[in-house]
Write a structure and sequence with these properties.
The chain is built from 33 helices and 17 strands. It has 804 residues and is an alpha+beta fold. Among the domains are: 5-49; 365-544, 3-Layer(aba) Sandwich (Rossmann fold), CATH 3.40.50; 582-798, Serine Threonine Protein Phosphatase 5, Tetratricopeptide repeat (Alpha Horseshoe). A hairpin with a 2-residue loop joins strand 1 and strand 2 (85-93). Residues 50-74, 120-128, 229-249 and 362-410 have low confidence and may be disordered.
Length: 804
C-alpha cells in the first residue's frame, strides 16, 4: 500500500525499535503494537517478517554451510585471527556487522586496518568467489574522501570479511559539534561528502546506508566516507551476492521512502539520505516529517554547538537552506536533486550568495541576491533606483516571512525600516543617491544593532508620503515598528544629514538629530558620512528603546530588555541585579554575557577580587564569542578583558575584529588607542582618537583623556594640557587630573600644577605614586615604562606627590 509522508516517518521510527530483534521478538513486538500505529501493522509485518521485501533471499538447503553457525560471528574476541589479520580492538558494531581494529601478521604489508565482519543470516558455499568479484569492483573506488578497501576474503569457516582503511576520527555531526563549527564551515565540510558520493555514483555504485556514523572526520578535518561494502552496483542486472545473502542495508532514520518500501533504488535514494544528514548537521535534529523546515526544528543544544544563538541559527537556516534541505528530502525521487552533484551545486550557490535552484525563480528573490553580491556597484545610476526599490520591497517581504523575532520587545516583533533619503537638488541622480544611502545605512545600522538581534531593512516609499497619517499607513504597510527617514544636503563646504525616527504605529516623530561632515574630511574618508549617520542613529534607537522599556513593568521585561535597562542606569546595585536576572533567565544571552564581562573587567585593579573578576570576565567573553562570532560588541569587550590581563597582542587582534565587524563604533578606536599607548606606541594612538571623534562626538571626553596620555608620553606637554582640560568637562576619571598635574609640572608651570594636584587630592585624598601603581595595572613593556617614568612619574614628583 502507498504510505503518506507522516506514515513513512512513523514507520521509520518504529522499524528502529524492532529491527534488531529476532523473528520471535519481532512477532511479539508486532502483537503489542499500540492502537495509534495499527494503520502500519501490515507494512511493518511485511518489513519485519517477510524478508523478501528487504531483498533477503531464503537460500535452499544446498546453499547452506552446515558446519557454520550464525552465532560464530559474535564469538570473536581480541587476539583472534581472521585470515592473516589479528584482532586488537573492537571499534563498533551494529545490526549488520562488527568492525575490529586489526593488524596483518603474516609478514606482508604492515598497517592498522578496520576489519568488517558482516553478521550472517545464511551463508553460501560459493560466497568467496562472488565476494571477491564485488571486492574488485569496490576496490576501484579511489577517492580522497572514500575510505579505501584494501582486502576481502572468506575464512575457512565460511566467514566473509572486508579489510578497509582505518580512519581514526569521529562521526561527521559529532566532530562538527565538538569543534563548534558555524553553518558555513559545516556546509563546506559536507561538500566533501557530496564529492565522494558523486564519484561513486559516476562509477555505478550506490552507497545505500549514508548516515553520520559512516562519515568520519579526522583530527586534521579530513572527511572519509565509509561502508561501501554494502553498496549496490547500479549496472548489475541483479542484486550482488552480499545483498542477496545478508539483506538490504537499512538504517530507518536515514533511509529513503523507496528504500523502506523495498523498491528499486537510484542515485536520488542516496540524495535523500544525504538530505537527512544535512538536516541534522545544520539543525541538530532529524526530520520527523519531511515537510518540517530545519529552522523550525532546532535541537536544544544546536545553537551552542554552532557558536551562535537559537534566534540567529533559525534566521540563518530560514529561506535558502530550508528550501535546499526540503528538496533533498522530497518524497518522490523525481522531486529531489537528481544527483549529489546537483545538491552540491545548490549549496555552493548558497555560499556564494547566488539564487538557489530549490527556491522559486521570483524576480524579487533574484534581485535581492544580486544586490547582496554587488553592494558597491548597485544604485549608482537612476536605473539602480528602480532596482533598489524592488530589492527593498523584497527585503521587507523576507523580513516578515523568513526571520525570527528578536529578543527585545521594543523592536522585537517588527523591523526598523529605512526609507529612501531625500537629496538636493532634485534629479534622477540625487534620487538614486538617496536610495543608495538608505540602502547602505540599513546595512550599517543593522550590523551595529545586531547585538540585540534588532532587524533593519531598506524599504521604498513614494515621495508624497510625508505626513503623520501617511507615515502611519506606511508603517502598517511595511509591518514596521519604526521608520527612519532623512535628507542629505551639501552646502557651505560640508555634507549635512538630517535624520528622524518615526513611530510606525502612530506616524509621529520620536527622535531627530543631524550630523555634519566637512568636505575635506569626507574626501579623506569617503565612508565617514555613513559611519557618522550610523553612530548617531544607533544612539537614537537605543534612546527610544530605553524610554519604551523604562515605562514597562519590570516583571514584563524579557532578558534582553533587562540588559538594555541595566545599561541605562547609574545605580550600580540595580545594574548588577538586572544583569544577574537576565543571565539567570537565559545563560546564553550574549548581551548579558558581554555586559557582565565588561563590568567585571573594569573593577579597580587594586581591589582584592580583581584577579578573580578577570578570570570570570575571560570565561564570559570567550563564551559570548563562541555563541556569536560576528558580534562586534563581544569582540570589543573581549579586547577589554585581554588588555586587563596584560595580553596586548591578543587585545589588539580582538579589537581589530570588532572594528572590522562594526566600523561605526567609536569606542573601539578609543580602546585601540589605549592599547597602542600601553605597548609604547603613543604616536599611533592619535589617528585612532581623531577617527573616533570624527565618527561619534559623544566619545569626546574619554578620547581627550586618552589623547592627553598619548601627548604626555610623547613629551608634548602643551597639547597634553589642552586635551586634559577638554576632558575634565565630561570625564570623571581621576587619571585626567593625574595627567594634567604631571603635564603642568613638566612644562614648568608650577602654579597650575599645584591647582591640578589640589583637585586630584580632593578626588583621591592621600594619593601617592604607590597608589597610582596599584590602580593603573600597567604593562611590563620597556618602552612604555620608559615613557611613563620620564613624563608621568617624574612630573608628579616635581608637583610634590609623595612616593607612598
Amino acid at each position: 500500500m502507498a504510505l503518506s509522508a507522516e506514515q513513512l516517518a512513523r514507520m521509520s521510527r518504529l522499524l528502529d525499535e524492532a529491527i534488531d530483534l529476532d523473528e520471535a521478538g519481532r512477532e511479539k513486538w508486532l502483537q503489542a503494537l499500540s492502537p495509534e500505529h495499527q494503520d502500519l501493522k501490515a507494512a511493518l509485518k511485511q518489513g519485519l517478517l517477510a524478508p523478501q521485501t528487504l531483498d533477503i533471499e531464503r537460500p535452499s538447503a544446498q546453499m547452506l554451510d552446515a558446519e557454520f553457525r550464525p552465532g560464530d560471528a559474535t564469538d570473536l574476541k581480541v587476539g583472534d585471527r581472521v585470515g592473516p589479520y589479528l584482532l586488537t580492538r573492537e571499534l563498533g558494531h551494529g545490526g549488520m556487522a562488527r568492525v575490529w581494529l586489526a593488524a596483518r601478521v603474516d609478514g606482508a604489508l604492515k598497517r592498522e586496518v578496520a576489519l568488517k565482519i558482516p553478521a550472517p543470516n545464511v551463508l553460501r558455499k560459493d560466497l568467496a568467489e562472488r565476494f571477491t568479484l564485488e571486492r574488485d569492483i569496490l576496490a576501484g573506488l579511489e577517492h580522497p574522501n572514500i575510505a579505501r578497501l584494501y582486502d576481502a576474503g572468506v575464512t575457512q569457516e565460511g566467514l566473509p570479511y572486508l579489510v578497509l582503511e582505518y580512519v581514526p576520527g569521529k562521526g561527521l555531526v559529532t566532530w562538527a559539534d565538538e569543534h563548534r563549527l558555524g553553518i558555513r564551515e559545516r556546509i563546506e565540510l559536507f561538500l566533501h561528502v557530496l564529492k565522494a558520493v558523486q564519484y561513486a555514483h559516476d562509477r555505478g555504485v550506490l552507497h545505500r546506508d549514508i548516515k553520520p556514523s559512516n562519515v568520519l572526520v579526522t583530527d586534521a578535518g579530513q572527511v572519509r566516507l565509509l561502508d561501501f561494502g554494502v553498496a549496490k552496483l547500479l549496472q548489475q542486472p541483479s542484486e550482488g551476492s552480499l545483498t542477496r545473502v545478508y539483506g538490504r542495508a537499512l538504517t530507518p532514520e536515514y533511509a529513503s521512502p523507496e528504500h523502506i518500501r523495498g523498491e528499486p533504488l537510484q542515485p536520488a535514494s542516496d540524495v535523500y539520505s544525504l538530505g537527512v544528514m544535512l538536516y541534522e548537521l545544520l539543525a541538530g535534529s532529524r526530520p520527523y516529517l519531511r515537510a518540517e523546515r530545519p529552522s523550525t526544528q532546532l535541537g536544544p543544544e544546536a545553537a551552542a554547538a554552532r557558536a551562535t544563538t537559537q534566534t540567529r541559527l533559525a534566521r540563518r537556516l530560514r529561506g535558502d537552506l530550508d528550501a535546499i534541505v526540503l528538496k533533498a528530502l522530497a518524497g518522490a525521487p523525481e522531486d529531489r536533486y537528481g544527483s549529489a552533484a546537483a545538491l552540491a551545486d545548490d549549496l555552493q550557490r548558497y555560499l556564494s550568495g547566488e539564487p538557489v535552484a530549490a527556491r522559486p525563480a521570483r524576480l524579487a528573490y533574484r534581485l535581492t541576491k544580486f544586490t547582496l553580491r554587488h553592494r558597491t556597484g548597485v544604485a549608482t545610476t537612476a536605473a539602480a533606483a528602480v532596482l533598489a526599490a524592488a530589492v527593498g520591497y523584497a527585503l521587507t517581504r523576507i523580513s516578515v516571512t523568513e526571520r525570527t523575532a528578536p529578543t527585545s520587545a521594543a523592536f522585537a516583533d517588527k523591523p526598523i525600516a529605512v526609507l529612501p533619503f531625500l537629496a538636493s537638488p532634485p534629479s534622477d541622480e540625487s534620487k538614486a543617491r538617496g536610495l543608495s544611502f538608505a540602502r547602505d545605512l540599513s546595512v550599517a545600522l543593522g550590523r551595529t544593532l545586531a547585538h540585540f538581534d534588532w532587524r533593519v531593512i531598506a524599504s521604498p516609499v513614494s515621495e508624497n508620503q510625508t505626513g503623520p497619517a501617511e507615515m502611519q499607513n506606511l508603517g502598517s504597510k511595511l509591518n514596521a515598528n519604526y521608520l527612519i527617514s532623512g535628507e542629505i544636503r551639501h552646502a557651505d563646504g560640508q555634507t549635512r544629514v538630517d535624520m528622524q525616527i518615526i513611530d510606525g504605529t502612530t506616524g509621529t516623530q520620536v527622535w531627530a538629530d543631524r550630523v555634519e561632515t566637512p568636505d575635506e574630511k569626507a574626501a579623506r574618508s569617503p565612508d565617514l558620512v555613513l559611519l557618522k549617520a550610523t553612530a548617531v542613529l544607533r544612539h537614537g534607537v537605543y534612546k527610544v528603546a530605553q524610554g519604551r522599556i523604562a515605562s514597562t513593568p519590570l516583571n514584563r521585561l524579557n532578558p534582553s530588555e533587562m540588559v538594555i535597562l541595566a545599561n541605562d542606569t547609574e545605580d550600580q546595585e540595580r545594574k548588577a541585579r538586572l544583569y544577574a536576572e537576565a543571565r539567570q533567565r537565559d545563560p546564553n544571552l550574549v548581551p548579558a554575557l558581554v555586559a557582565w564581562a565588561d563590568r567585571l573587567s573594569r573593577v579597580d585593579a587594586a581591589a582584592a577580587e580583581h584577579e578573580r573578576n578577570l578570570l570570570e570576565a575571560d570565561d564570559l567573553s570567550k563564551h559570548a564569542i563562541q555563541l556569536a562570532p560576528d558580534d562586534a560588541d563581544a569582540w570589543y569587550v573581549r579586547g577589554v578583558v585581554l588588555w586587563g590581563q596584560d595580553r596586548y597582542d591578543a587585545a589588539l587582534a580582538a579589537n581589530a575584529k570588532a572594528i572590522q565587524l562594526d566600523p561605526s563604533y567609536a569606542k573601539s578606536y578609543v580602546s585601540r588607542a589605549v592599547y597602542t599607548i600601553s605597548i609604547g606606541q603613543p604616536e599611533t594612538a592619535l589617528p585612532m582618537l581623531d577617527r573616533a571623534r570624527d565618527i561619534d562626538s559623544t566619545v569626546e571626553g574619554v578620547a581627550s583623556r586618552v589623547a592627553c596620555r598619548a601627548f604626555l608620553s610623547l613629551g608634548r606637554y602643551d597639547e597634553a594640557i589642552q586635551s586634559c582640560e577638554k576632558a575634565i568637562a565630561t570625564d570623571e576619571s581621576f587619571l585626567v587630573h593625574v595627567y594634567l598635574t604631571a603635564a603642568y609640572a613638566q612644562k614648568g608651570d608650577m602654579a597650575h600644577a599645584t591647582d591640578a594636584k589640589a583637585r586630584l587630592l580632593r578626588i583621591m585624598p592621600g594619593f601617592t605614586l604607590e597608589t597610582l601603581t596599584m590602580h593603573s595595572n600597567k604593562p611590563d613593556v620597556q618602552r612604555f615604562r620608559e615613557q611613563w617614568d620620564k613624563h608621568v612619574t617624574a612630573g608628579l614628583r616635581k608637583a610634590g606627590i609623595p612616593e607612598r
